[in-house]
Protein: Aldehyde dehydrogenase
Amino acid sequence: MTEHTLTVAGVAVDTRHWIGGRRVASAETFTDVSPIDGSVIGEISRGTALEAAAAVAAAKAAFPAWAATSRAERARILHAVADGVEKRIEELSIVETTDNGALLRSHRRGVMPRVAHNFRFFADWLLKLEHEDFETRGHTNHVSWDPAGPSVLITPWNAPLMLATWKVAPALAAGNTVVLKPAEWSPLTASLLADIAAEAGLPAGVLNVVQGYGSEVGDALTSHPDVRRISFTGSVPTARRIAESAAGNLTPLSLELGGKSPLLVFADADLDLAVDLAVEQYDNAGQVCLAATRFLVEESVAKEFTRRFVEKAATLTQGDPRHETTDIGPNIHPRQLEKIDAFVQRALAAGARAVIGGHRKDTQYYAPTLLTDVAQDSEIVQEEVFGPVLTLQTFSTEEEAVRLANDTRFGLAATLATADAERAERVTAQLVAGTVWVNCFFVRDLQAPFGGSRHSGVGREGGTWSFDFYCDVKNTVTAP
Ligand code: NAD
Structure:
């Protein structure tokens, strides 16, 4: 324990950066606050261009040896990281809940096991990654995935360690070295990941973690000329700034951004299933990029759907995310809550009706909200709120449903509830979305591509798509 160690719910967390296998403090700090009750967790090192440069230099120095490490050895170490995560699921869960306010039971049972799975999956996929050979006039074309170099990974606060490791694991598996910058509202579990990776035997400099504000250390990282890949998950305005920073060096980018995804409920759907899917959209207090926040319901069942939705939503318990019985926790920050409420108040002023909610509960919690009487071109239908706020519109034909679903600048996901398989196929083919769920939500194989269309992102990650992004894919042509 040092003066830089915080004890968070009994767990020791180092508040400094992790650079080149050493803990490094900054002169300045920023304050980390718990969304559960607004209490101060502690002071975290506030990185600058100096620490960004040091982290990239460490990643650059460690790159040749890590890139030359056999696939089997890289996979072995990634499995050892997964073992370390599994041993610390309890600690990671309570620290993450304290830091970002998401449900403790979700962290324990779903999120942290998935963090371990991210490492295992990409370790195993690396071993399966096949080199394709083609033949042209007797010449062999041999395709290989070469490690690209130091990779900067920038992540948001809504699922901090899950989203970070969704990038860290494939980047390391590919043979790249990494500088991870977690969001300043949820910096803690990335620091624990650095400890776990070091204990698992990941060599110094292969994974670096820098803390701080996006506009400071983040900007310095994304404009650094020695960075070979940038993978970013976050908002559209930040993606634009990162793209500008990266443009100077033409650094390849992967962007996983926001959404305003539809849930289409057709009259032939199992309405109980549709309502279950609908209520699920309040998960993580609505702070889910993939959330189907726009309900599009066939006119003839809209009244009954709404009745059952209201009934089901009333059974949700909102409160302390550490309690086993809580379904909806706080929003991340009072500033976020203000933003959510401003969206809702403007919508109400423009003529929307709150079927449920429509107001904050206190400075950290927002009442689960469903708004009707909203115009297609209104702000509340077109902009991502990132809180427990859903809208409901009706349609009378399949064509209208598709038109409303696609009438957005986003294209991350879409969910359909219908009992008609042919309709599902027909509608899916017309939807602009990176992922379409038919009569389900959120289930996804890590082999499948993940990403968004339009303003929801650039590129796809997952399975071989991740290796395509993190590697310099090479074709070697050999004469007969
Ligand atoms: P954000 O864009 O404000 O911040 C994300 C990260 O970018 C943070 O680490 C932040 O410090 C950093 N950053 C900010 N400015 C930067 C700059 N100039 N240079 C470099 N880095 C910078 O997003 P947020 O509020 O943390 O997250 C919410 C957003 O993320 C929502 O739009 C949500 O839909 C999106 N999201 C998308 C996915 C996906 O997979 N598509 C997943 C989760 C969240």
About this structure: The chain has a mean pLDDT of 97.
